[in-house]
Amino acid sequence: MSERSFLLEMNGIHKSFPGVHALDNVHLDLYPGEVHALLGENGAGKSTLIKVLGGIYTKDEGEILIDGKKVEINSVKDAEKYGISIIHQEIVLVPEMSISDNIFLGKEEGSSFMISRAAMEKKTQELLDSFNMGLKATQLVSSLNIAQQQMVEIIRSTFSEAKIIVMDEPTSSLSDKEVDALFNTIRDLKKQGIGIIYISHRMSELDQIADRVSVYRDGKYIATKTVKDTTVDELITLMVGRQMGNYYNRDYNECKETILEVRNLSNKNVHNVSFELKKGEILGFAGLVGAGRTETMRAIFGMDPKDSGEILIEGKPVNITSSKDALAAGIGLVPESRREEGIFPDQSIKFNETMKVLSEFIKNMRVDAKKETEIAQKYADELSVKAPGLYTLVGNLSGGNQQKVVIASWLAAKPKILIMDEPTRGIDIGAKAEIYAIMNELAKTGVSIIMVSSELPEVIGMSDRVVVMRSGEISAVLDRSEADQVTIMKNAVNI
Amino acid sequence: MSEKNSTLKNILASNNPVIQYIRRNGGIIIGFFILCVIIQINTPQFLTWSNIVSVLRQISTNLYLASAITMILIAGGIDLSAGAVVSLSSVVVATCMVNIGLPIPLAILCAVVLGALIGFVNGTIVYKTGLPPFIVTYSMQCICQGIAYVVTGAQPIRLTDKSFIFLGTGFVGGIIPMPLVYLAVILLFVWYVLNRTKLGRHIYATGGNEKAAEFSGVNIKHVRWFVYSFSGIMAALAGVVLSARMYSGQPAVGADAAMDAIASVVLGGTSMAGGRGFIGGTIIGALLIGVMNNGLNLAGIDSYWQMVAKGIIILIAVYVDFVKQGKKLRK
Question: Which CATH fold topology does B56-295+306-317 show?
Fold first, then answer.
């Protein structure tokens, strides 16, 4: 393999921001027709490196070679000129325009006075067909699901004659079937000699799609391995710089006392949901996306209306019709989508952490600033939130630290029952392990946790019992002795 | 700001409120002083006591609205109806006194209650329908302005009651104009709500991330009700004070008021996108607009040219702030 010449080389890249050496002598190389995965915890420097390549940031030092020739990339336009295309996590298509219009955006065909819509639509249709997408060129992007939109982005980047495509966590919101389709597309791209840089937190995908993998840690380049010759354990060790071992550590409690009982809960999304939660237990909720797990939690938390059913806390029926009622009843909910529902990005860590407990320090027409700082500091320490200070804006933190702030804000409210919806989605392994440890600690102190999760190893590793949902109903309640991947999946899918 | 050395950086990073204020509004404060110097050189009567008092009196009604709109913008909304409510309130207070013969306090109460009600309706519609506040309050602006014209036939209503006139033109202790006294109370109140109450946190939270606020147990409906009703009350009050200052109920008095207030708020660094803003910034924003108008007046510049100048200056000032914010976000 080393006989081939590199499509892209980045050598000795340095980039500093005030107070942070984000990239410290970082290296990356890429062959044509190769999928090169980048691994590293959040904050390891992957995104910064990609932004340097894409012209969003300008490097302080170092050289970038494309096809062996030294190039300067100082703007997004420069990057485009050299055939670099970046597909960001967030989709950047115009929803109210057709697929064809999106693909040709900025490169419309025709004369200056009249674009030739028909010609563009024909070309787009050919492209769509070549990817077996079953879509029409004239369809509006807003009518597509996320996976299809991602495909459109990929098609757009191949169409713009990209030689290098960067995919930043492309599978984070895709179902298994959609991931397969994406991987087939990637294999096609490889055949055309396009080099692909692939960022993902899902280690299991590497075997399927990547040729080589480079690991980064704390802004430094650690190593590059051929996927065939390495193991997941080795990669994790490289990423965290220490042996990880099994990070699902649970001290199982004897759970006897029932703290929460849900009886025949129904609304437009869920039917006849009944289950019990014991004191000090972690109750896993497994199921496919759309099985009604989040909707069940929203109904319990008073965010969605209930048509029928009862909720009992410590044996007493409670009437919860708003999140305020739920808080008062001792229920907390760490929402599924951190950015959209969890954080106040323009506000400080302190503001975020104390949002649910304002009454504890705003009393008698005055703010007890000391108490406020105390509360914020206590939970920031407890969750080891990594930030320069309590005044740091939460929008500037990494995903893992943002999630810790959200959890901290709920712990500050001292809930008896804590619902955690996808508590570790999109965060790195180190932060995951820390969150598991916190959950274990909470359960030990008698907090009861409901964990909704789509990651089976996590559900199996952390739960005392597992509730499986399917099309808005509970299909099984499994003890941890019976909860294995096969049993859970059998109950999660329609047979 | 490029000559910043590290000690200066350390000072700027501290959490002392005065330093925070300067850090947030540095650009506009400098601009404000430069403007003052230029005007003073051109027209030496600028820095005389009587002129300063007159400028402060002029900006005070703008600041009633601007302080309420600061809260609305922070909560993620906007209120275009405030100007029309000023007009309507002016008409209502005059009609109540002249045509119906109500005593002064009752007439003022009518105007204020009406203002609160209009704001409450704005807030309710925004909350219940989820329509963009821009559209809701713009419609309300048309309705209120229309009613103000209908009621008066577009003619001013003369007011002669001395004690009412005093509310707008009088002085406390012979030196401090009445409108400034109300202003001080309003600014203190808004500062207090934003910085010292749960409601204040809820306002920031609602504008910063509405869904997260809802998950946190914030009652979004109450926040909307409060900020829009307060805006209505402030607009009504501005209408009353302006009527007293002009000896008449004027159906067009608030025509540009909402936009002037919004401009002051945005000049003061409050984000149009919600979640971020400070009453202190709004004060300096309103001062800048007020002093600029005064300077152009003193220089004898035609009032239509003043509009042109105002547009240009707002554009420049907001752009400078935008660039500053953009740099921060990029980091």
Answer: ABC transporter involved in vitamin B12 uptake, BtuC (1.10.3470)
